[in-house]
Amino acid sequence: MANLNDSKILELKKQIEEKKKSVSKSKKFTPVTNCSIELDGVRINIQTLTKEQLISLLVKLNSYAASAIDLGLLEQYSISGYNIADWIGDLKSKLEFISSKDEEQKLKIMEAKLDKLLSDDKKVELELDEIANMLNN
């Protein structure tokens, strides 16, 4: 029974490793703006915002953009020296970056839980395999 569980655990660890590779390939946050926006007399650094704060700001800026489109002023409308589309793009990019970091953290936690579930015999076997691979390289 332990061998069956070990094989399931190792298969799950492979799946986690594949997900980690795809998450790590996600792009880094490279802003177009200076990340410091002033709205309603308050300066906000988007680098310091939580996911929820980013979403709220994104919704607010999107409503501003929709109004600017309705008024035919989108091309002329800027906030803190940048086009509103640039701010929206940076906020979306920052959200994607935070989401990928959150996903990486969840995967690490799952991997640690799976490591704890491996039988002692399997842990020893994996350690021996790792040492053998290091000696052969």
**What is the C-alpha radius of gyration, as a whole number of Å?**
23 Å
Helix content: 55-70%
Rounded average pLDDT: 89
Query: Which regions have little confidence, pLDDT < 50, spanning 5+ residues?
Result: none
Strand content: 5-15%
How many strands, which pairing sense, and closed or not: the largest β-sheet?
A: 2 strands, antiparallel
Strand order of the largest sheet: 1-2
Order of helices and strands: HEEHEEHH
The first-to-last residue Cα distance is 34 Å
What is the number of E strands? 4
Class per helix and strand makeup: mainly alpha
Number of contiguous helices? 4
What is the 3D shape? Answer: elongated
What does this structure look like?
- The chain has helices spanning 2-24, 51-70, 84-117, 120-136, and strands spanning 36-39, 42-45, 78-79, 82-83.
- The chain is mainly alpha-helical.
- The strands form 2 sheets. The protein has a two-stranded antiparallel ribbon. Strands 3-4 form a two-stranded antiparallel sheet.
- Strand 1 (36-39) and strand 2 form a beta hairpin.
- Helix 1 packs antiparallel against helix 3 and helix 2 (51-70) runs antiparallel to helix 3 (84-117).
- The radius of gyration is 23 Å and the shape is elongated.
Topology:
Layout lengths: L1 H23 L11 E4 L2 E4 L5 H20 L7 E2 L2 E2 H34 L2 H17 L1
